[in-house]
């Protein structure tokens, strides 16, 4: 809120917002726990990192969600990113309904696969051929196999703080050394799998160079989220990403960009286009299905020629190229190609983020808002940049937990973890963003001034 001199002034501090009703969601969660491990079908949904029981969502429309208790929220989770047009977008919905009238799965080629592939490839300088799969995890798993098959090498180098789905060889964490074999971060993964994965810290050229010295001619690929957004928003300097490109080229290894989140989110060409860096393989997900389950990986025609039935690297999927998912992707990506789409979305996000940053600066709160494109992340820190996972203070999540509860009670929905990023969609209105700003201002004031 600003005074006549255009300076942000103190808002009127209020008591914490009244708790929303969760009675029906709680009942559903109690029943769900009798069916599913932890009552959920994906762990973060269990709300273990925030207050209260999970909210069971009943419907979404535009930028808003409604839960089983009738609570309405402005949504910044956007199904963890793919709903760049918001919920239930008419163009996506109508295209899906049109296609569903003719059947929902054939296990055979359809023209829709060609149409979506042409839409992507004709507007993306960084890949020449693509293969559709059913999830981001499957895309990454396939890309790793392709890299190994193409290079005839076994080891993969990944970074602590980047998440690549629940692939066995990549569900690993760093050990205690500068360059280490991965240590399994999940039960059920043989150590022998993790031993083929080298883990180093983000933003550490020395560690990467040392890994190539220690495992000379053994590393098939480096895999990285070029915009790491699964463990905070750990924005990397372009020079580091270019260094990875150069060291892979020098050592005959492939560079894999995991763009399951950043692909089509920061621009139609994703992070590869944003930074103008050519990876060897790119994985996609989320957005290209318009909210339906989908994934893809792409590369040059030469690399993709190694995939069966052309080559010896086997990969298959009964639901790959599912016509319903393809139709949703066609409808959504067509919207993204409209002139000015990304600039308008970026400007909207930038205005929102800058308003929050101004309020934080005016009050000298130890909070930073990191953002790129239409992705943002709240970090309870005084650091000007966070580029590595070990630079995140776990204790700071206590403040996010308080903030999350206050925002929910004020009608704002963020993902239920302080390590997760938020997303602005084209459906968010000026009124939505103003309401959200005010809710954030109140929440931060309550956390830091009232010590709730």
**How many E strands?**
17
* CATH architecture heading of the largest domain: 3-Layer(aba) Sandwich
Give the overall average pLDDT: 93
Specify the CATH class of the largest domain. Answer: Alpha Beta
The CATH superfamily of the largest domain bears the name: Type I PLP-dependent aspartate aminotransferase-like (Major domain)
What value does the Rg take, in angstroms?
22 Å
Secondary-structure content class: alpha/beta
Return the string of H and E elements: HEEEHHEHEEEEHEHEHEHEEHHHEEHEEH
The 3D shape can be described as globular
Note the beta-strand portion.
Answer: 15-25%
Topology:
Layout: H1 23-32, E1 57-61, E2 64-67, E3 72-75, H2 90-100, H3 111-121, E4 129-133, H4 136-151, E5 155-160, E6 172-173, E7 180-181, E8 183-184, H5 191-194, E9 197-201, H6 205-214, E10 219-224, H7 238-251, E11 254-258, H8 270-275, E12 281-285, E13 295-299, H9 301-304, H10 323-336, H11 341-363, E14 368-372, E15 375-379, H12 397-409, E16 412-413, E17 422-423, H13 430-450
Parallel strand pairs: 3-16, 5-9, 5-10, 10-11, 11-12
Antiparallel strand pairs: 1-2, 2-3, 4-13, 6-8, 7-9, 12-13, 14-15, 15-17
List descriptors.
452 residues, Aspartate Aminotransferase, domain 1, Aspartate Aminotransferase, domain 2, 2 domains, four-stranded mixed beta sheet, 15% strand
Description:
With 452 residues, the protein is of the alpha/beta class. The longest helix has 23 residues, at 341-363. Strand 1 (57-61) and strand 2 (64-67) form a beta hairpin. The chain has two domains: 23-80 and 341-450, Aspartate Aminotransferase, domain 1 (Alpha-Beta Complex), CATH 3.90.1150.10; 90-336, Aspartate Aminotransferase, domain 2, CATH 3.40.640.10. Helix 2 (90-100) runs antiparallel to helix 10, helix 11 (341-363) packs parallel to helix 13 (430-450) and helix 12 (397-409) crosses helix 13. The chain has helices spanning 23-32, 90-100, 111-121, 136-151, 191-194, 205-214, 238-251, 270-275, 301-304, 323-336, 341-363, 397-409, 430-450, and strands at residues 57-61, 64-67, 72-75, 129-133, 155-160, 172-173, 180-181, 183-184, 197-201, 219-224, 254-258, 281-285, 295-299, 368-372, 375-379, 412-413, 422-423. The chain is built from 13 helices and 17 strands. The strands form four sheets. An eight-stranded mixed sheet has the order 4-13-12-11-10-5-9-7, with helices on both faces. Strands 1-2-3-16 form a four-stranded mixed sheet. A three-stranded antiparallel sheet has the order 14-15-17, with helices on one face. The protein is globular. 35% of the residues lie in helices and 15% in strands. Mean pLDDT is 93; it is low at 1-9.
């Amino acid at each position: 809120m600003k005074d006549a001199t255009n300076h942000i002034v103190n808002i009127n501090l209020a008591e914490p917002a009244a708790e929303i009703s969760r009675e029906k969601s709680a009942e559903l969660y109690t029943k769900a726990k009798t069916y599913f491990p932890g009552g959920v079908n994906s762990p973060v949904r269990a709300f273990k990192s925030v207050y209260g029981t999970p909210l069971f969502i009943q419907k979404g429309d535009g930028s808003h969600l409604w839960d089983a208790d009738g609570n309405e929220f402005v949504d910044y989770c956007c199904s963890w990113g793919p709903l760049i047009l918001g919920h239930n977008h008419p163009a996506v919905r109508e295209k899906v309904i049109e296609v569903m009238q003719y059947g929902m799965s054939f296990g055979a080629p359809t023209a829709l696969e060609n149409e979506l592939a042409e839409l992507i490839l004709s507007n993306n300088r960084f890949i020449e051929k693509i293969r559709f799969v059913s999830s981001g995890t499957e895309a990454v798993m396939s890309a790793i196999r392709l890299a190994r098959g193409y290079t005839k090498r076994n080891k993969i180098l990944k970074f602590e703080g980047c998440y690549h789905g629940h692939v066995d060889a990549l569900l690993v964490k760093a050990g205690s050394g500068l360059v280490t074999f991965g240590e399994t971060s999940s039960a059920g993964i043989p150590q022998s799998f993790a031993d083929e994965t080298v883990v180093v810290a983000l933003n550490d050229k020395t560690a990467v160079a040392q890994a190539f010295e220690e495992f000379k001619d053994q590393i098939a690929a480096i895999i990285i989220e070029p915009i790491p957004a699964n463990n905070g928003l750990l924005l990397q300097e372009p020079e580091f990403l270019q260094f990875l490109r150069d060291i892979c080229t020098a050592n005959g290894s492939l560079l894999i960009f995991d763009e399951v989140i950043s692909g089509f989110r920061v621009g139609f060409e994703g992070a590869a286009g944003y930074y103008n860096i050519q990876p060897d393989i790119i994985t996609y997900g989320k957005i290209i299905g318009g909210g339906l389950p989908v994934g893809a990986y792409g590369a040059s025609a030469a690399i993709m020629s190694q995939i069966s039935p052309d080559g010896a690297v086997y990969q298959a999927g009964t639901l790959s190229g599912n016509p319903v998912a393809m139709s949703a992707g066609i409808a959504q990506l067509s919207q993204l190609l409209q002139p000015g789409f990304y600039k308008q979305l970026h400007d909207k996000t930038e205005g929102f983020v800058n308003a929050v940053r101004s309020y934080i600066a005016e009050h000298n709160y130890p909070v930073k808002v990191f953002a790129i494109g239409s992705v943002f992340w709240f970090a309870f820190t005084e650091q000007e940049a966070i580029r590595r996972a070990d630079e995140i203070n776990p204790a700071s999540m206590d403040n996010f937990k308080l903030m999350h509860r206050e925002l929910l009670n004020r009608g704002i929905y963020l993902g239920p973890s302080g390590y997760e990023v938020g997303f602005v969609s084209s459906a968010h209105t000026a009124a939505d963003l103003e309401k959200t700003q005010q809710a954030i201002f109140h929440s931060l004031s309550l956390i830091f001034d009232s010590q709730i």
